[in-house]
Specification:
single chain
């Protein structure tokens, strides 16, 4: 779609602007309500290590990442002016004690650290909106933009400190430039520039997260598709084959130049955050394979249906209907004369299928979302105006637009209602996967509650008192207890072959001379502590997030008086 064509439909343009504004607003909404989460304790220290003396590549401080995304997050934290120098004492993949080393500085720098993903979440939405406008017909672009404006997992990774949203941005930039190159005239200067920019962006995507390396195959395919006869001519020469190729329109020089400069661009931008060392790349790959052996190679993904189910679990029921209709569109695309943009979408969707079938790493929803752009664009063709689209069933343009508005309103309502946690699930998929909503949603809320729980504890804890269980909350309070807690658990495991009981914690755990006074119960997750406390005693306080009981605070001293004498 040409940008100038937007001006021809004032109502459509107004609706599009409203959706973009709301998509930007929801990304900033409830900024103060999110704190730190479990994975942040790996992501942030890895990024901070860049700014202090280190004797190993920072990407090895976690589970094995090229570390560009971590570097970006770390640079935002450093803008706070806090002293993170003790990050150099952190041991790779060893988390106890990190709270005392950098917890206070991280708490003070929280708005700066969080800003990194907020900024990249906004940039991602703007770029995917531009990409949709340049790739798709008007109404298809509207669907795509509204989908990405309110799709909960995308919003989630734009508010919680993970590198994924940074990777999504570079992927979409790469795809945008590849599309511009694909539709440009062969062997033109613009085509070469777009290919170079596209491969450079994909290099940065890999420099952010290892599974993004798969996009190199898609970029090469787009070049080969445009220069298929040149590629066949080269293949014929190398393998000494005998088939005939029309030599009249071959442009071998442009083909070789495009391959060479695109490859150089890819490697250059990949190696910048790897300190221009292939050894660092090898060490990162080795570490990733060690930590994730089952998801670091090429294999048939036996969990494909579960991956699709997870995707649908996070969409609205209306979008699920569009997902089903998309397979009819896919069938029709193979039986019709395709436009340039339809070809590109078909290639991108086919690439998505290959990725989810052959790479088990896609089992993680955050990685699945890095490859599902072809799926979303295919779904958007429901509103393309082509003979296979909804327009062929509903002749009136106003009714098609009405369907789009209803889709957008329903998605937007859920996004704002569930902000900033985004754990509400599709009830239809929940019924097909019995119990999945009940088992996922409340537990996720428990993990999100560290900041709010710490704020409450600060009003009741005496200097000689502490709490259980100890988790990310230690970054906000009682920061000196992380390592003593680890030692206590290790000792009990060594002596008894199990974790400590609540009674043993009360009687024997004395971190820095403090007694265990309070217990923070997840009321939604079965546990021995829940059986002991939930039905028999009343909590002194309940942390509520999005109208859900998340943490119940129990005063153990009043319940088990015999242990406190």
């Amino acid at each position: 779609m040409e940008l100038s064509s937007l001006k021809k439909d004032n109502l459509f343009l107004i609706l599009l602007i409203i959706v973009i504004i709301l998509g930007l607003y929801v990304r900033l909404f409830d900024f103060s309500q999110t704190g730190y989460y479990g994975d942040d304790m790996t992501t942030i220290p890895t990024g901070l290590l860049w700014f202090y003396p280190h004797d190993y590549y920072p990407g090895l401080a976690g589970q094995g990442e090229p570390a560009f995304g971590n570097l970006i997050i770390g640079s935002f934290c450093m803008l706070s002016g806090e002293d993170f120098s003790k990050v150099t004492k952190i041991q790779p993949m060893f988390y106890p004690g990190r709270e005392e080393l950098i917890g206070e500085a991280m708490t003070n720098a929280e708005p700066y650290c969080k800003s990194s993903v907020y900024v990249f979440g906004i940039l991602f939405f703007l770029i995917i909106s531009l990409f949709s406008i340049l790739l798709l017909p008007r109404y298809s672009a509207f669907f795509s933009i509204s989908f990405f404006a309110f799709y909960p997992p995308i919003l989630y990774y734009g508010k919680w400190i993970h590198v994924d949203i940074i990777g999504y941005l570079f992927i979409v930039l790469g795809l945008l430039f590849l599309w511009l190159a694909y539709k440009e005239e062969r062997a033109s200067k613009k085509e070469l520039i777009y290919f170079v920019l596209g491969f450079g962006s994909l290099g940065l995507a890999l420099a952010t997260k290892l599974p993004n390396a798969i996009y190199l195959l898609f970029g090469l395919f787009i070049i080969l598709e445009k220069y298929k006869y040149e590629a066949l001519s080269l293949l014929k020469k190398i393998l000494k084959l005998s088939f005939e190729i029309n030599q009249e329109n071959l442009n071998k020089k442009s083909f070789y130049k495009t391959i060479l400069l695109s490859g150089i661009s890819y490697l250059f931008f990949l190696l910048i955050p790897l300190e221009f060392s292939l050894k660092n790349l090898f060490l990162v790959l080795q570490k990733y394979r060690l930590v994730n052996p089952e998801r670091s190679g090429l294999a048939i993904n036996t969990s494909l249906l579960n991956d699709i189910s997870d995707f649908l679990l996070n969409t609205t029921m209306l979008n699920m209907l569009i997902f089903i209709f998309a397979f009819y569109i896919l069938f029709r695309l193979f039986r019709t004369k395709r436009t340039t943009y339809e070809n590109f979408i078909l290639y991108l969707f086919s690439f998505f299928l290959l990725a989810v079938i052959l790479f088990p790493a896609v089992n993680y929803l955050r990685i699945f979302n890095a490859f599902f752009f072809g799926l979303i664009f295919l779904m958007s063709l429901t509103f393309s105006g082509r003979d296979y689209s909804l327009n062929s069933l509903v002749k009136k343009k106003s009714l098609v637009l009405a369907v789009l508005v209803v889709l957008t309103i329903s998605s937007g309502y859920i996004a704002f209602k569930d902000s900033p946690y985004y754990v509400v699930k599709n009830p239809v998929v929940c019924k097909l996967n019995s119990g999945v909503c009940e088992s996922v949603t409340p537990i996720d809320f428990y993990g999100f509650s560290a900041k709010q729980t710490a704020e409450y504890l600060s009003t009741i804890l005496e200097d000689n008192e502490t709490f259980l269980p100890q988790s990310v909350i230690l970054y906000y309070t009682r920061r000196d207890e992380g390592y003593p807690h680890y030692i206590f658990v290790e000792q009990v495991n060594k002596l008894a072959g199990r974790n400590p009981t609540l009674e043993e914690y009360i009687r024997y755990f004395r971190p820095n001379g403090r007694i265990v006074r309070y217990y923070l119960l997840n009321p939604n997750k079965p546990s021995a502590e829940r059986d002991l406390l939930y039905d028999k005693y009343n909590p002194i306080h309940t942390i509520v997030l999005n109208n859900k009981n998340t943490v119940m605070v129990y005063d153990l001293k009043s319940i088990f008086q015999q242990y406190y004498r």
